[in-house]
Amino acid sequence: MPLIGENLGYYYQKERWIFKDIHLSVAPGEVLGLSGYSGCGKTTLSRILAGYIKPRNGRVTVGGGELKRNAFRPVQLIYQHPEKAINPKWRMEDVLTESYTPSQDILDAFEIRDEWLKRWPLELSGGQLQRFCIVRALNPAAKYIIADEMTTMLDAITQAKIWNAFLRICRSRNIGVIVVSHEAALLNRICDNLYKVGRD
């Protein structure tokens, strides 16, 4: 059941297209890199592929069917800024178990400590919050995960550990991954294929 974006186009102001005529496909277990200059629409495209925004043109399908609103999304999105994706009024254990209860080996893979679970989001760093967002996206029902500049707030060693754990779990579940990044070295190292958004 591939994730397919057909003839996708989007604008915020009428007829001032951010992008148009985008065709891309991701197979189960594939890692696709999305590259492009800052402001070319990578994040907007990610939100369209995850079903958060309706495209002005085209459509997104998973296994031939369009994404349903107000239902669990088989395409999960991990944002660059975790503080914007977490309810500040929830303790971290509630954030973590919002849609499923992760196993201890998943928590261990991302080095989530027990004492963090009782804390409020404001009491954790951006890097710690992002670990929760990653684990939350690894819902057993997820078929695809879009990682939008997922580890930019982390140092190089931590980035490598997070990516290794994340990709190992995705491969074991045959989850397709879209990696959004401006870091060519990262994309070349971990992706099976690359798609460039926008023109130079």
Summarize the structure.
The chain has helices spanning 42-49, 92-96, 104-109, 126-137, 156-173, 184-190, and strands at 3-13, 16-26, 31-35, 57-62, 65-66, 75-78, 144-148, 176-180, 193-196. The chain has a single domain, classed as 3-Layer(aba) Sandwich (Rossmann fold), CATH 3.40.50. It has 200 residues and is an alpha/beta fold.
What is the CATH topology? Rossmann fold
Count of DSSP E strands?
A: 9
Shape: globular
Rg for CA atoms: 17 Å
Describe the largest sheet: 5 strands, parallel
**Count of individual helical segments:** 6
Provide the low-confidence segments as ranges.
Answer: none
Q: Structural class of the helix and strand makeup?
A: alpha/beta
The proportion of residues forming helix, as a percent range, comes to 25-40%
